[in-house]
Amino acid sequence: MSINFQLGITQTFPCNYLPNQHERLLVATDERLQNGEHYAWLMAQGFRRSGDQIYRPHCELCSACKSLRVLAKDFTPSKSQKRNIKKNNHFTIKISHQQRPIYYSLYKNYINTLHQDGSMYPATTDQYNSFIDSHITEQLYLEIWHDQQLISVAVTDVLNDALSAVYTFYQPDYNRHGLGVFSILSQLSLAKEMKKEFLYLGYQIDDCKKMNYKNRYYPHQVLSENKWHTVNK
Question: Are 158 and 108 in contact (CB under 8 A)?
């Protein structure tokens, strides 16, 4: 793809993930990029979205954030991941192609219970909508149900050749079930079913406990120096 488009750079601000570090973002501001085709291309360049903002870390003194995508068709679960699947196989998975009003209460409970130290606390409807909603590309919502109770939602972008895991929130009472892992495994299964090549997981940050789990799914690729490098188990 060869076009001239506009990018912007944010001011430097304290890093949300690493102490004593600062971050800034490269932002795709050009309206011509606000569609599924161009977004898929930007994802392959290490960009990601939050709401309708498409961004990529562009820090002067740090390169800890590594874009990571799993090779969906070649993925094989590890022993611990197989145990997770077995442990949760009594749950029901449903796919919705539109956001539903019942999601917000689950999101609010998740943020206000498990992420009181995060930038999204306390949860509000405006913050939720601006973070989850997007007009850039098609979305689906992977729901996990326990009998008649919705216990988890994984917001997932649909690209031409990939799915992208945007955000997962779940019922805190089910924390011991490893629903974050189970959601990724379910998204990988869905990506394979939809014949997508990749599942994008966002940024792997090795020194951040909240962001260092994404490299446990093999095989995967990591973007480094503008090249994707395959990592096998």
Answer: no
* pLDDT at 168 (0 to 100): 97
When pLDDT is cut at 50, 70 and 90, the band that residue 167 belongs to is very high
Report CA Rg, the chain.
17
Do residues 76 and 187 both lie within one domain? Answer: yes
Amino acid of residue 36: G
3-state secondary structure of 172: helix
The verdict on residue 1 lying in a domain is no
CA distances from 122 to 67, 110, 155 (A): 28, 10, 20
Say how far apart CA 202 and CA 100 lie, in whole Å.
Answer: 24
On whether the CB atoms of residues 150 and 168 are closer than 8 A, the answer is: no
> From CA 155, how far away is CA 160, in angstroms rounded?
17
16, 38, 65 - which closes a domain: 65
Tokens of 181: 């892992």
Buried b (16+ CB within 10 A) or exposed e, 86-116: eebeebebeeeeebeeebbebbbbbbeeebe
Same domain, 101 and 53: no
In 3D space, the residue among 167, 132, 172, 174 whose CA is nearest the CA of residue 153 turns out to be: 167
The whole-model pTM stands at 0.95
Give the Cα separation of 14 and 23 in Å (integer).
6
Report the alpha-carbon distance of residue 227 to residue 230 in Å, rounded.
10
Task: Give the model's confidence band at 149: pLDDT under 50 very low, under 70 low, under 90 confident, else very high.
Answer: very high
Whether 172 and 226 share a structural domain:
yes
